[in-house]
Design a protein that fits this description.
Layout: H1 5-22, H2 28-38, H3 43-55, H4 58-67, H5 71-74, H6 82-95, H7 99-122, H8 126-132, H9 137-147, H10 154-157, H11 168-184, H12 192-205, H13 210-222, H14 226-242, H15 254-272, H16 276-293, H17 296-304, H18 325-333, H19 341-371, H20 375-391, H21 395-411, H22 415-432, H23 435-454, H24 458-481, H25 485-502, H26 505-521
Helix pairs in contact: 1-2, 3-7, 11-13, 12-13, 13-14, 14-15, 15-16, 16-17, 16-19, 17-19, 18-19, 19-20, 19-21, 20-21, 21-22, 21-23, 22-23, 23-24, 24-25, 25-26
């Protein structure tokens, strides 16, 4: 059903009043243009009323405020409507003014309207201006002396050269609108130079306004200004703490939460400007801080970081529209024909570095799910990491991911598939892996063998347990070379259980004693064998 014309008109007027009330100050031309677009039949009446007060005497303005309450009974402006609330605010503010303040308000209105006339006269031909300049110069001198008095509403008196402060609501409305336009329709946003001037004016009167620093960051990225964009980004996160806007999210302390997101956004900024080495350093630092705080949300953002667009910023909330690292590599590969051989090698290193970082973040995120015993949620991350590593032929990352997958399947009660994965990757790990990787792979294989032996037939069970003991002995060799006492404690515990099942009492007692000595020396983990790879 179509909306009635009058109701649609009233709704448009109310929205216009809200925009004017919360928006920044406008020139008279801008104000009349908005009124004309909203209510064409009212623009002449509004203009006539303003100039009647400005060209008349002080009592004309006083008369306007005297008859203003009559609008509540003579029109549809209810006291609780949008227009009614604004009118009541105007009356309340006016009634609180002293006589001298009323006079200053009147002079401000005169100057506001006279500035509009001066712009209109400047657009006239020279001969027309000569006809309008025959005025008594003494009156201009008197007006100038009177207008030198400080104004009550300084923001209404600001000229193009000197601007006064915006109110808190005006500044918030202005910033929110410009941020929205920059992210959704940049062509309708203010030009970079003009926007920066407005931001400088806001920050001059309120340097701790965090949102203004954030908009300055977005605006600087538009013009590729790395210095101001970095400066504004860091100041934004600093002001979040100072203003108390940095609350405790996800159970984390405020300062640390802001710090890791600041470092992550700094990595994004460096990546945006092609500073890949600095971006890697910042991203690794963000990953380290997030891991220490067990912030899996921040780690997920680290995962998506290489595909960010310029105006996508992590403001401690979920981010939409991020690209995968493979798309980033695909986009960059279009420019390889322009690079020299040395440049192509450098480019390849940066791509591989980004992919490896993404893979490490995925594995770290999966381990966070392990800590909460949510092993099923770790599977999608690990499968994505596996596909990424195989796509870019990263053997080391592929092996590490397969071990993570095998451990996850073991904890989900699928030891058969887990053992298959370990056996597939074990040869590569023993040939090219580090000592800790070799020991971890063998320990995982032994745990899979133990799980399978428990469900095996009676005639094959003892053989399976003996095989697990042998695998644990091999893992102990690598861990002992590293003096990894925590891992040795786990191995001695498993060995004691296996020897007890096999009936090897002396070996069981020996392994149990070694486990107890290490358990007393090391801090308690709360469980015999921790849920980790």
């Amino acid at each position: 059903m179509p909306r009635p014309p009058q109701l649609k008109l009233d709704r448009t007027c109310f929205i216009c009043v809200c925009d004017l009330n919360h928006g920044p100050d406008l020139t008279l031309e801008q104000f009349l243009k908005i009124v004309e677009e909203c209510c064409l039949h009212m623009v002449n009446a509004v203009k006539l009323r303003l100039f009647m007060m400005a060209d008349g005497e002080l009592q004309d303005m006083e008369y306007f405020f005297t008859i203003l309450p009559n609008a509540f009974s003579d029109s549809d402006a209810f006291k609780t409507s949008v227009v009614g609330l604004l009118m009541r605010q105007m009356l309340l503010a006016y009634n609180k003014l002293s006589f001298s303040q009323v006079y200053k308000l009147y002079k401000s209105l005169q100057q506001y309207c006279r500035r509009s006339n001066q712009r209109e006269l400047s657009a006239l031909p020279a001969e027309d201006m000569e006809l309008t300049s025959n005025e008594d110069p003494s009156t201009d001198h008197i007006d100038k002396v009177e207008l030198d008095t400080p104004s009550l509403h300084q923001s209404e008196l600001r000229s193009d050269e000197t601007q006064g402060p915006l109110s808190q609501k005006q500044a918030e409305y202005f910033l929110a609108r410009q941020v929205y336009l920059l992210k959704n329709n940049e062509n309708k946003a203010m030009s970079p130079a003009k926007l920066q001037d407005e931001l400088n004016n806001i920050l001059k009167f309120n340097p701790d306004f965090a949102e203004a620093h954030y908009l300055s960051y977005l605006n600087s990225v538009r013009v590729q200004d790395i210095y101001i964009s970095t400066h504004s980004l860091l100041h934004y996160f600093d002001r979040l703490i100072l203003s108390g806007g940095e609350g405790k999210s996800n159970g984390d302390e405020g300062y640390g939460h802001s710090l890791r997101y600041a470092v992550l956004n700094l990595a994004t900024l460096h990546c945006r400007f092609g500073h890949y080495q600095q971006a890697d350093f910042a991203l690794l630092e963000a990953i380290r801080i997030a891991q220490e705080a067990n912030d899996h949300v921040c780690l997920q953002h680290c995962l998506l970081q290489p595909g960010l667009e310029p105006n996508q910023t992590f403001l401690q909330k979920p981010v939409k529209g991020c690209q995968t690292p493979s798309k980033l590599t695909e986009r960059k590969s279009k420019n390889t024909t322009l690079l020299s051989t040395s440049g192509m090698n450098t480019f390849a290193r940066h791509c591989n570095s980004s992919v490896c970082l993404c893979g490490r973040v995925m594995l770290a995120s999966a381990e966070l799910h392990w800590d909460s015993s949510d092993f099923a949620s770790a599977l999608p991350l690990l499968l994505q990491a596996l596909a990424l590593s195989r796509q870019h032929n990263l053997q080391s990352l592929t092996s590490e991911t397969l071990l993570h997958l095998a451990f996850t399947q073991l904890m989900l009660g699928i030891p058969e598939q887990a053992l298959v994965l370990v056996q597939d990757v074990l040869e590569s790990v023993l040939a090219h892996g580090s000592l800790i990787d070799k020991g971890r792979a063998l320990l995982l294989a032994a745990r899979c063998q133990m799980a399978l032996a428990g469900a095996a037939a009676q005639e094959h069970r003892l053989t399976a347990f003996e095989l697990a003991v042998h695998t644990l002995d091999e893992a102990a060799v690598y861990f002992s070379q590293l003096d990894c006492k925590e891992r040795m404690r786990d191995i001695h515990y498993l060995q004691a259980r296996l020897h007890h099942t096999l009936g090897n009492i002396s070996q069981r007692n020996k392994c149990a004693m070694l486990f107890r000595l290490l358990d007393q020396e090391l801090p308690s983990s709360g469980m015999t064998v921790v849920n980790r790879l």
